[in-house]
Amino acid sequence: xxxxxxxxxxxxxxxxxxxxxxxxxxxxxxxxxxxxxxxxxxxxxxxxxxxxxxxxxxxxxxxxxxxxxxxxxxxxxxxxxxxxxxxxxxxxxxxxxxxxxxxxxxxxxxxxxxxxxxxxxxxxxxxxxxxxxxxxxxxxxxxxxxxxxxxx
Length: 152
Known about the structure:
Blueprint: H1 2-14, H2 18-39, H3 46-60, H4 64-77, H5 85-94, H6 97-112, H7 119-131, H8 136-148
């Protein structure tokens, strides 16, 4: 996954079509982090997969097919990821504070989608929030908001 993101960033620097590639990068970074939450417990149930796809559709105005492809790619690339740092570094470079909040909210939504918050899921979300410099108050607000949202 990290190699794929690195490749996409390299393409940004060499391409005249930066806006289209930049948008794809942001979607892939988001998908990668959401997939990481969904699979940190070594299982991915259908509700988590559906939540991932719905979140990408809603947030990036994607059709179902495009969102499903991005989720599938992120799942397939998951084993190649070596560190959260490269993902969170890209988030820090490209996301506003509001976008960072929405990312953490979405991560909580994925975690809550199976009605069980595993310690690994909470730790991962907390770590990402710290690495992207999201204030703790927004971290807890995102958790409370996600907890109260409808799940599949």
